[in-house]
Amino acid sequence: MAKIKTMNVKAAPGTKCPMEGAPRKYITDAEAVDVPYTAYYIRRMADGSLVAGAGPALRGTAAPESGGDSASRQPAAPSSGANVTQAAASAAPGPGGSPAPDGGK
Hints:
Layout: E1 6-11, E2 16-19, E3 22-28, E4 33-36, H1 39-46, E5 50-52, E6 58-59, H2 81-89
């Protein structure tokens, strides 16, 4: 059975934030609570309505998948900045497909 990820959050100082699915229940700035890691609460964190609580910000993990090794589920390591720099250095064509008149500088 999968374990649900949760976040420990509280409302920004001086505010209260409605609970997902229970708009008459509020998260206050007085006490941190554990809430499910859902798009609703992630948006509230992004817009500043909620802040991280005193506990760990993210708890729980999904149940391990059957078969395969754990290395195959790891995120890819970030690539070096060289590729990004090369892409930024190449000038994009101007209107009509011709190079920019200033040489892309």
